[in-house]
Each structure stands twice: as structure tokens, then as C-alpha cells.
């Protein structure tokens, strides 16, 4: 098996699994549906082309939470074009300041196509919502040999340096991994309705998918900053932000 | 068709202002790089761009769309203009049936008390949601309605006439629909995927909202209490924003279709749309509390890139917040970009096929001078980008 890894980082992300009507919530990690949708869009699969979608949706999916971010609520108003009256308000939730590593396991040729499509996308990638572009290109690596679990163990911790600095050098870091269950694990898995069957705008369909919550361990080695800087108030800032 | 993207980056400073409020009236915020930032939502700025198109006459009215629930009235007005014999209730009914034939749902909103007073017109059907149709689509639907006006219900019983109605609603999109998309829940097949991504603008530095306590004096109240006639608070902040948007030019071309006017090159609508977008995105301003704060500013620096690879946001340059300890944020923000842009382009870009333009103001932005071809004015920048887009579109793939 081969594995494609992606780095999903940006100031704002939003990954809805059952977001409907005027309350658009987000899961705490990218949904399979959104990531498959992003890859399908990159290779130019049109909405409603379920035949071309199927092999991409069949890839095995897992995601690692490298930097969980903060849940944020946004209030959205719209106004009537003629009367100027306010239309129904909607709430949109985002994850601010989060970083994820997503991995897809499957056939090498397909993954290689997806990998190159991300560099030359028909429809550009976004992090769950069009207004959330990634802060760096999303493609991370293409492993010709390996499994999802191996890739998520071996990919270096992608958190931002400010986030890493909050951890003591030498400390153990545990990152949550949410991955699709293997057949023998299905009994122990949770389910999430984010297995895409069709993105046809008139009838989007999603199946249930089994998800195993796991973790990987890193030993944190401190990055040296390019310029040594000392501000005694940093410690207070960090403490304050943690408590906020 | 050749795939290419345009990305637009801008640094813009606002004095104390409250251009985009949340439900408590405070300016919107986000956390990035572990610190709070000022934020302007993407939808607020897209609205500003659309308004700018109209107010500044950047585009002909025929190239713009109308987003309204009162879509039946809009079509009925056009029917009455085309065929003065059909007017009033008849025009409204013809318009209603034609819109229903496209798959849109309309309903008659009951008025308070539901009594029609003498002289007051009958309630008019409205769409249940905001519908975004271009001027050409509205005209086309009106023409179709006139054609079937004799017996409009029977007319739309024929499948080929319903198909024509859908076809009209699905072609000749206005420039703003092609750029920002259209979503209709009940008639998903006439949805249009936006060719533009506008990111939420965020400040390049840490921002905490502040609150202004104000009092207003009652000019005529001299005898009684001499204190304030009213008091209140207004929240505000002041920030230098990083703003980013990306246009899928190939997708825009697909949404817009061929030239709208006879004899113009096929690339013309796309060129006009791209020029209008770059101009509108750079110069438009969300107007929240503009009379309170007068935040009329323009970007200090704009970078535009036309590339064959995927668009790249430079927001990561500001993940580590700018401290501004030398006073102001623009100088340091430009220095950051001057370092970050060549680095990220080296790693992920495609130097050979990427064109870059820079528009900048003041000595704070000096370090960006070598980032790309310098444009002297916004008009020059827009023209240069438009020309390059047209050339690339016409080049055989």
C-alpha cells in the first residue's frame, strides 16, 4: 500500500459533519468527506460525478491532531437587497489556529495523481469552507510503501513553533489520531457519517464510517529560534492565553 | 483549458474602527499564532466588493446580478417593459410561473392582518431565499414569459419550455455570480461554484478590542441636570490587516462562457471580470460604522501573482505576530513579506511561469520593491494584470 500525507493548517478551518441550516458546526478534526472532496476537486471531478468519486472515496483515511486550535463562533448576517431588513442570522463555527496531518492509504497510481493535482488543482483546496485557504500548500509527502499508521507515526510533528515552545524539551507529546478501523477492529470503533457517496448538489449522500481513536507519541526536542530573544512577559502571555 | 490562478495579497492599516461586528457589537476577532487578532470576515469584504462594482461603475449594469427575494417583481417589471399590454397582476403571474419553471420556489408572504386596503396592491410572491440572477438572465426569463403569456400554465407544461427556462437561468451569468457563486437550495442544478476564494482578513499583530465610553450633551437642556443626555459604549480596534483572495481564472472563464457582445474576443468577459475584481478587492472598504470612525484607507502594499500552479496564501508570514516595537506595523510586515515570499516561492512556486506585480506606498514598503514588476498606480496594476490574463487565455494550450 501507498500513503499520501497532507498538512492542513491555516488561521481558520471548519469541518462540518452534520452542520445544517443556520447553525454550522465544526468537528474537532477534518472529516473524511471534506478531505476526499478537496482531493476530488483538485483532480477536477465535477459535483455529481459519482463514478470518478468512488475510487477516491474508497481510500482509507486517518488524521492526526498536531495542534488542536480553538473553537470559534462567528455570527453571519445578510440583508435584504431591497428593504435592507436583516435576514435570518446564522452561526458558523471555526477552528482557529489548528494544524492537522491527514493521511490516505491506497493504490500508488491514484495517490500519485492526487499528489500532483494538489500542485496543479482544477479547483483549489480549502479547509472545509471556501473562505479558509490553507496557510501553506497542503501536500506533504507521498510514501510509495507503507501503511496509514506508519505514515502518521513517522511524519514529524507539524505544530507551529509557538505551540511547540509551550512544551518542555524532552517531554512526551501524545497526538490524537482518528483513523478508519481495520476489519478486525470494527467492534471497538465509533461511527461518523462522513463517508462520501455523492457530492451531487441536489442529493449529497454520506454513509457511516468507523473511526478508531488512537494516539502517537513523540519526544519533544526544542527547536532553536533563529534569533535569540528574551521577553520575560512571554511566560505571562502564555499562561494568560492558556487560561483564556 | 490551461489552468491558472491569480492571487491578490494586500496589507492595509485601519485607524480605530469597527468595520465588521459580531452579535455583541464588538469587532470580529480570531486567534492565530496563539494570540488574538482583529478579523474581517470574507463575506463582509465580498459584499464590499460587489457594492464597489456598482457604485464605481466598474462594470456595465448588464454584467451585474441582483440578489433579492423580490425576484418575481424584477421579472414582472421587465415583462411590462417588453410588452406593455401585459402588466400588473398578469405580468406578476407570468413572472411567477416562469421562475417556478426554472426550479425556484416562490411563496406569497402574508401581510400583517392580511387585509388589503383600498389602493394597496395584492401581495406579490417572493422567493423564500435570496436569489442571485444576472440582468441578462432576468431579461431572458422575461422574454420567455412574454412568449408564453397567452396561457402561461399550459406553456410550461411542455418540457422543452421548462428546459428553456432552466437553460436561461444557467447561462450568461453576471460577473459577480461568476466570481462569487450562487447557491439555490431548491434548484441545485442552476448553482454556480464561485471562482474566487476570499480569506478572512486578519491583523498581522496582536489586537485586543477596546471600548470607547461616550457621552452626548443635550444642547437645549440647560436648567436641569447639566450632565449627559445619553451615554454608551462602542467597541473598536485598530489594526494592520493581511488580506488575501485567489481567483481560479479558468473556472471564471467557464462560469462566464464566451463573449457577451458580438465581435469581441472570447477572453474579454474574463479580462473585464478579473480587472474589476482586482480593482474592487484592492480599493473596496467594508462600511461598518464608517461615519463614526471615518476609516477611509487604502492598502499600503499590494502583491498580485498570476500562476499556473495552485494559489499560495502568505498568511503564514504573520503567524508569529508582529510586535511593532519600532512603531507601526507596516514596515515590519513588509520586511516579513520580503523575506517570506521568495522563500515560499522557491519551495512551492513555479518561477518560470509566475508573473508578479507590486503596488506600494511609502518608504515602509521599500523592501517589497524587488518582489515583482512595480505598478505606479492602481489603474496601471489592473491594466497590466488584465492584459496578462487575456494573453494567457488566448495562447493555445
Automatic annotation (TrEMBL), chain A:
Keyword presence, Metal-binding: no
InterPro entries associated with the record: CRISPR-assoc_prot_Cas5 (IPR021124), CRISPR-assoc_prot_Cas5_N (IPR013422), CRISPR-assoc_prot_CasD (IPR010147)
Swiss-Prot/TrEMBL keywords: Antiviral defense, Plasmid
Pfam families xrefs: Cas_Cas5d
Identification of the protein by name: Type I-E CRISPR-associated protein Cas5/CasD
UniProtKB/TrEMBL annotation, chain B:
Domain of life: Bacteria
InterPro entries listed in its UniProt record: CRISPR-assoc_prot_CT1975
Protein name, UniProt field: Type I-E CRISPR-associated protein Cas7/Cse4/CasC
A Pfam family of this chain: Cas_CT1975
This protein's encoding gene: cas7e
Keywords tagged on the record: Plasmid
Amino acid at each position: 500500500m501507498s500513503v499520501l500525507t497532507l498538512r492542513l493548517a491555516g488561521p481558520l478551518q471548519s469541518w462540518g459533519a452534520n452542520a445544517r441550516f443556520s447553525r454550522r458546526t465544526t468537528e474537532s478534526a477534518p472529516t473524511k468527506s471534506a478531505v476526499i472532496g478537496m482531493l476530488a476537486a483538485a483532480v477536477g471531478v465535477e459535483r455529481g460525478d459519482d463514478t470518478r468519486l468512488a475510487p477516491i472515496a474508497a481510500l482509507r483515511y486517518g488524521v492526526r491532531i498536531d495542534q488542536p486550535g480553538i473553537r470559534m463562533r462567528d455570527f453571519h448576517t445578510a440583508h435584504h437587497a431591497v428593504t435592507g431588513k436583516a435576514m435570518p442570522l446564522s452561526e458558523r463555527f471555526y477552528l482557529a489556529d489548528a494544524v492537522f496531518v491527514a493521511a490516505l492509504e491506497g493504490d500508488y497510481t491514484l495517490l500519485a495523481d492526487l499528489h500532483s493535482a494538489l500542485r496543479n488543482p482544477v479547483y483549489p483546496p480549502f479547509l472545509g469552507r471556501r473562505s479558509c485557504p490553507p496557510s501553506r500548500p497542503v501536500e506533504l509527502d507521498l510514501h510509495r510503501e507503507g501503511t496509514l499508521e506508519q505514515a502518521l507515526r513517522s511524519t514529524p510533528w507539524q505544530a507551529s513553533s509557538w505551540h511547540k515552545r509551550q512544551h518542555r524539551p524532552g517531554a512526551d507529546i501524545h497526538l490524537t489520531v482518528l483513523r478508519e478501523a481495520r476489519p478486525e477492529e470494527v467492534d471497538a470503533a465509533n461511527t461518523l457519517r462522513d463517508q462520501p457517496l455523492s457530492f451531487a448538489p441536489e442529493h449529497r449522500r454520506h454513509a457511516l464510517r468507523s473511526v478508531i481513536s488512537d494516539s502517537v507519541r513523540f519526544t519533544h526536542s526544542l527547536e532553536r529560534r533563529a534569533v535569540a530573544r528574551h521577553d520575560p512577559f512571554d511566560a505571562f502571555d502564555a499562561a494568560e492565553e492558556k487560561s483564556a | 483549458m490551461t489552468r491558472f490562478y491569480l492571487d491578490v495579497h494586500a496589507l492595509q492599516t485601519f485607524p480605530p474602527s469597527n468595520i465588521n461586528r459580531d452579535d455583541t457589537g464588538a469587532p470580529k476577532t480570531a486567534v492565530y499564532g496563539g494570540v488574538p487578532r482583529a478579523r474581517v470576515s470574507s463575506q463582509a469584504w465580498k459584499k464590499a466588493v460587489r457594492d464597489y462594482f456598482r457604485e464605481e461603475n466598474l462594470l456595465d449594469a448588464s454584467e451585474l446580478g441582483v440578489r433579492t427575494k423580490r425576484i418575481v417583481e424584477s421579472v414582472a417589471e421587465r415583462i411590462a417593459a417588453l410588452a406593455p399590454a401585459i402588466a400588473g397582476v398578469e405580468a406578476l403571474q407570468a413572472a411567477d410561473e416562469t421562475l417556478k419553471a426554472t426550479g425556484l420556489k416562490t411563496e406569497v408572504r402574508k401581510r400583517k392582518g392580511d387585509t388589503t386596503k383600498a389602493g394597496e396592491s395584492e401581495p406579490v410572491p417572493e422567493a423564500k431565499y435570496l436569489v442571485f440572477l444576472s440582468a441578462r438572465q432576468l431579461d431572458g426569463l422575461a422574454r420567455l414569459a412574454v412568449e408564453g403569456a397567452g396561457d402561461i400554465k399550459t406553456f410550461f407544461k411542455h418540457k422543452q419550455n421548462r428546459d428553456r427556462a432552466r437553460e436561461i437561468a444557467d447561462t450568461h451569468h453576471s460577473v459577480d455570480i461568476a466570481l462569487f457563486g450562487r447557491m439555490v437550495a431548491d434548484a441545485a442544478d442552476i448553482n454556480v461554484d464561485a471562482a474566487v476564494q476570499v480569506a478572512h482578513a486578519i491583523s498581522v499583530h496582536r489586537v485586543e478590542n477596546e471600548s470607547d465610553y461616550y457621552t452626548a450633551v443635550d444642547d437645549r437642556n440647560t436648567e436641569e441636570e447639566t450632565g449627559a443626555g445619553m451615554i454608551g459604549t462602542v467597541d473598536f480596534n485598530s489594526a494592520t490587516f493581511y488580506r488575501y483572495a485567489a481567483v481560479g481564472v479558468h473556472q471564471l472563464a467557464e462560469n462566464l462562457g464566451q463573449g457577451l457582445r458580438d465581435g469581441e474576443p472570447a477572453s474579454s468577459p474574463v479580462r473585464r471580470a478579473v480587472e474589476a475584481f482586482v480593482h474592487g478587492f484592492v480599493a473596496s472598504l467594508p462600511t461598518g460604522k464608517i461615519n463614526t470612525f471615518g476609516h477611509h484607507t487604502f492598502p499600503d502594499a499590494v502583491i498580485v501573482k498570476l500562476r499556473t500552479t495552485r494559489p499560495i496564501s502568505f498568511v503564514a508570514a504573520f503567524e508569529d505576530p508582529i510586535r511593532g516595537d519600532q512603531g507601526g506595523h507596516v514596515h515590519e510586515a513588509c520586511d516579513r513579506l520580503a523575506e517570506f515570499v521568495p522563500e515560499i516561492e522557491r519551495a512551492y512556486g513555479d518561477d518560470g511561469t509566475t508573473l508578479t506585480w507590486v503596488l506600494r506606498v511609502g518608504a515602509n514598503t521599500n523592501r517589497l520593491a524587488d518582489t515583482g514588476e512595480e505598478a505606479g498606480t492602481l489603474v496601471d496594476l489592473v491594466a497590466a494584470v488584465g492584459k496578462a490574463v487575456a494573453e494567457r487565455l488566448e495562447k493555445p494550450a
